[in-house]
Amino acid sequence: METIKTAVLGASGYTGIELLRLLFAHPAVEVSAITSRANAGQALSSVLPRFKGVEGADIEFIMPDMEAVVATGAQTAFLALPHGMAADYALPLLEKGLRVIDLSADFRLNDAAVYEEFYGQAHPAPEWLPKAVYGMPELYRDEIAASQLIASPGCYPTSIILPLVPLLRAGLLDTKSLVVSSLSGVSGAGRTASLPIIFSEVNESLRAYGLPKHRHLSEIEQELSLAAGEQVMITFTPHLVPVTRGIHSTITASLKGSFEEVTAALEAAYQDEPFVRLLGAGVAADTANVTRTNFVDVGWHHDQRTNRLVLTSAEDNLTKGASGQAVQSFNLLHDLPATTGLMNL
Which of 86, 240, 275, 318 can bridge 18 by disulfide, Cβ–Cβ 3.0-4.6 Å? Predict the structure, then answer.
């Protein structure tokens, strides 16, 4: 298989490390550049010994100089950078003709005003928002394949949007009744040291955060509104739990259709999707079954007392919720089978 030279910017963070784990095992990828200000000039295997012995792992980190990245011959670049920073690196790469897969939130929203509302700053490149494609392969396969700029979704949004979109498109839910409670492993907070996420603070602890307006609400409500054909607002409560990886979401809503129609809509939407595993009616999702994989598991129950639907979903926040989903988009961009490099269990 012909290889595609690929760069990873921000390769020393959790999502960057996860990208490298997947890309070094990907038969169509040659990692040509990795960037990190803190580790520039050092070999990857010396900074991250987990990669010792892997072919290509002696590549050296370079400074995030876009001319240097382009000079390596990279055709595609993954941006595993903080929100608000990615756009500064995306633009020169796009101008050079590279295809860019951005794992930050910089290009996920269609409206620059919504970005400013939720992220507290003006959008750095609003002219690119109409050109970017929301990188959820199950929903936007053709658009991703034809795009130069992919805005890869966040971890919470993936666990919420995928179960709900088919049901909203079918008109099976009361859009004013949506309530979501999600739990995330600590790696979702990133690799930078911070007092609230050190072991002693997280261990034996369970707490809600980001209330009442977590920034991921912006992309969740955007995509749910597009699916429903009307403005959708939800109550969303994220929690931090003392595990490293994984997201579990419990979604409830009042049913407008029948419970049998829920099953039919989910099966029609995802029966041919390799990474959405439908557990069936009466089964609940469990993060233990998806850790370090690109699967998202979805189960559903009917609370007949209240006529509410209860959906549960589970995914690995670093894989399906970030880097694995980005590699799915990479496969689409390069006309590769969807599962290439991703069928690890």
Answer: 318
CB 3 within 8 A of CB 26: no
Name the catalytic one among 94, 155, 247, 296: 155
Tell me how far CA of residue 262 lies from CA of 163, 266, 283, in angstroms.
Answer: 10, 6, 14
pLDDT tens digits for range 298-340: 999 999 999 999 999 999 999 999 999 999 999 999 999 999 9
Whether 251 sits among the annotated catalytic residues: the reply is: no
The backbone region for 307, taken as left when phi is positive above 0, alpha when psi lies in -120 to 50, beta otherwise, is left
Reference 265, options 177, 164, 176; nearest CA is: 164
Provide the whole-model pTM.
0.95
The single residue listed with the structure tokens 């809503």 is 253
Residue 201: pLDDT above 90? no
